[in-house]
Design goal:
This protein is mostly helical. 63% of the residues lie in helices and 7% in strands. Strands 1-2 form a two-stranded antiparallel ribbon. β1 and β2 form a beta hairpin. α1 packs across α5 and α5 packs across α6. The two termini are 35 Å apart.
Length: 150
């Protein structure tokens, strides 16, 4: 696209709409989680990802896997883990089979907070999607999100 182009391409319009939807949802979730539970969206996401770990093969994530799961750099993830560990919501320990590996588990306090925050997150997500569905440029993306299956 050049400075003389009068309108963005359909691809650029789609990307802008997706970015707008993401930003609106994240801001709505951030406000709800902060107000109700003192958690940021990133903190909630990290607790959620780590809470799904289990004992046994492939049950625990290394820090680089955690970083990928919450879409942060490894250094940002490490800082986030440290903050949550300082709050007593996470515990770190060395891997039994590879002393270079560090695992992170959600503490009981973290699990309790996550259980309290999950309904807030779900309600805020629903509210944000319902609001976005009323905007013609976002409605198709809302439908796509609602139809996704993990």
């Amino acid at each position: 696209m050049t400075a003389t182009d009068s309108a963005p391409t359909p691809l650029a319009q789609g990307w802008c709409a997706l970015s707008l939807l993401h930003g609106r949802i994240e801001a709505h979730l951030e406000r709800a989680l902060q107000a109700g539970h003192g958690l940021s969206v990133r903190e909630y996401s990290l607790l959620d990802v780590l809470s799904r770990q289990h004992d046994g093969p492939g049950g625990h994530l290394r820090m680089h896997q955690v970083a990928e799961s919450v879409a942060l750099s490894q250094s940002a993830t490490t800082r986030l883990v440290s903050r949550l560990e300082d709050r007593g919501l996470l515990n770190r320990y060395l891997c039994d089979t590879d002393r270079r590996g560090i695992y992170t588990d959600v503490s009981q306090a973290g699990l309790d907070l996550l259980a309290e925050a999950r309904p807030t997150n779900a309600a805020a997500l629903r509210e944000a999607l319902d609001e976005a569905a009323g905007r013609p440029e976002l409605a198709p993306l809302v439908t796509a999100v609602e139809n996704l299956r993990a």
